[in-house]
Automatic annotation (TrEMBL):
Organism of origin: Fluviicola taffensis (strain DSM 16823 / NCIMB 13979 / RW262)
Record GO terms (molecular function): oxidoreductase activity
Protein name according to UniProt: FAD-dependent pyridine nucleotide-disulfide oxidoreductase
PANTHER family according to UniProt: FLAVIN-CONTAINING AMINE OXIDASEDEHYDROGENASE, PROTOPORPHYRINOGEN OXIDASE
SUPFAM superfamilies documented for this protein: FAD/NAD(P)-binding domain
Organism domain of life: Bacteria
Keywords, ordered alphabetically: Signal
Pfam families registered for this protein in UniProt: NAD_binding_8 (PF13450)
Keyword Signal annotated: yes
Cross-referenced InterPro entries: FAD/NAD-bd_sf, Zeta_carotene_desat/Oxidored
Length: 450
């Protein structure tokens, strides 16, 4: 070998070893919107990073589950069993993320006139029918005007959230100048049904976050709620295909079972066809729900304090059924959201009449349903699909715990806990924002040369 070739070889080896020591391995646990967006943002920032995304299920999406079912005409159509709607303005990070990853005009969407009906079980007449478009359709105009006033109050809170920090729904609603019957019959059932939880639970949740969740604001482009024609779940899978590369490896059907600290790295153990395999990585991102993250950390004593905080974050079960039974909706006065209450104003069911969004969804209903209702649907042959989701209950205590959690996690330069919930608001948009925050943490990690 000539001396020039030897020098070249030495230079290549030296540059390779510098490159290798600088190159970081990142494990992302969870393939919902938070995990997928984190993978994208980190890969864009650091083209040398090697990213492995682990998802326990067979496909990406997490809560965003798009299901193929038959409509009245017998055609197969996409329906989102989990997250479904978005609004331009409050969901702009989500929209921009899809544009960045999937290209121009990345999706087809459909628009709906959000319209609300609240009815007592076994009674013919609804308590309230909200306007559809500009037409007033309310049984009782006074109640309808009050609903508009309520919307204005919620919008005011949306604009001035700092004044309402730490206040729960019950305290906020108590302060509103409405009579008790209106609060109990209309406001509480409406807020609870929209989230898929109970009246009792909604009262303790953070008022500011609930108001943000419903996007009580004047959106930039339009006032309309929208749904994705192909489904929010389908879009996450498309993003996954786009970002898969030599740099980003996506491992589905690969649940992570533990993460242990190993000097200044992390040993990630996951299952591959039932056998345990490991990856030694520099940076770990937990993009699962908090309770799942706590399970994965359970054997690592250095993370005990984080686990303690995670235990305080509570979840509730939302059973969502797609079905063809129209008994839950009032077809005489069609509305998008049909809320049925009992005589004590507690929720009995909350059903979305999907044909109000789009004709292609005609004959398909989406209900937040009790186990009993699901059994009935099953027995009548009208059940299309059912999923149990675990949704964080964003109480004021939850928000307070999050602040402590972020402080604790900051003591570890090479881990981050992302996810819609970790922003104190659980939407596809907050999951994307969480992906951006994961990148911020990663940047600090790199800047400190850790
Ligand atoms: C019924 C329902 C309706 C909703 N409606 C809307 C809506 O209309 N609009 C909206 O914007 N948002 C809505 N949301 C909220 C939205 O679904 C969430 O904000 C969003 O899905 C959060 O994304 P994420 O990535 O944080 O979590 P997830 O989507 O929960 O993803 C977490 C992922 O981690 C994976 N995982 C867990 N444990 C492990 C492990 N050990 N190893 C590997 N992977 C693991 C899970 O399988 C999952 O894929 C709704 C939620 C529900 C439940």
């Amino acid at each position: 070998m000539s001396s020039t070739s030897k020098l070249l070889l030495v230079l290549i080896l030296v540059s390779h070893s510098i490159y290798s020591s600088a190159q970081k391995k990142v494990a992302i646990i969870g393939g919902g919107m938070a995990g997928v967006s984190s993978a994208y943002y980190i890969s864009q920032f650091d083209s040398t990073a090697k990213i492995i995304l682990f998802e326990k299920e067979a496909k990406l999406g997490g809560n965003a589950q798009t299901v193929l079912v038959k409509n009245k005409a017998g055609e197969l159509v996409n329906v989102d069993a989990g997250p479904q709607y978005f609004v331009e303005g409050p969901w702009d990070d989500y929209i921009l993320f899809l544009e960045k990853t999937l290209g121009k005009n990345p999706y087809k969407s459909e628009t709906l006139d959000a319209s609300l009906l609240i009815q007592r079980e076994k009674e013919q007449k609804p308590v309230l029918v909200s306007p559809l478009g500009m037409k007033l359709r309310g049984e009782k105009l006074v109640k309808l005007l009050k609903l508009k006033r309520f919307n204005k109050e919620a919008y005011d809170m949306y604009k001035h959230p700092e004044a309402w920090k730490g206040i729960n729904i019950e305290t906020w609603v108590n302060g509103l100048k409405f009579d008790e019957s209106y609060k109990n019959e209309i406001i509480y059932p409406f807020l609870a049904a929209s989230l898929g939880t109970t009246v009792l639970e909604i009262k303790t949740t953070s008022a500011v976050n609930i108001v943000k969740l419903f996007a009580f604001r004047k959106p930039k482009a339009s006032n309309k709620f929208k749904v994705m024609t192909d489904g929010m779940g389908t879009l996450i899978q498309q993003v996954g295909e786009k970002i898969s590369s030599n740099q980003v490896t996506i491992k589905c059907s690969s649940p992570v079972v533990k993460v242990m600290q190993s000097k200044d790295k992390w040993l990630v153990t996951y299952l591959n066809n039932g056998s345990e395999e490991t990856e030694l990585v520099d940076f770990v991102l937990f993009a699962t729900h908090a309770d799942q993250a706590a399970k994965i950390m359970r054997l690592e004593p250095n993370l005990n304090e984080i686990k303690e905080i995670l235990k305080h974050l509570t979840y509730f079960e939302a059973r969502i059924a797609l079905h063809t039974d129209s008994n839950f909706v009032n077809n005489q006065k069609p509305a998008f959201l049909n809320i049925i209450t009992n005589n004590s104003n507690q929720l009995v069911s909350s059903t979305m009449n999907l044909s109000m969004i789009s004709e292609r969804l005609d004959g398909i209903y989406k209900s937040w349903a009790s186990q009993k209702a699901i059994e009935q649907l099953k027995n009548s042959g009208k059940l299309l699909h059912v999923t149990s989701f675990w949704h964080p209950l964003i109480t004021t205590d939850f928000i307070a715990q999050l602040a402590i959690l972020h402080q604790q996690v900051n003591q570890f330069p090479s881990i981050y806990l992302s996810g819609g919930w970790s922003e104190g608001l659980e939407t596809q948009n907050s999951a994307v924002i969480s992906g951006q925050h994961a990148l911020e943490k990663y940047k600090v990690f790199i800047a400190n040369g850790k």
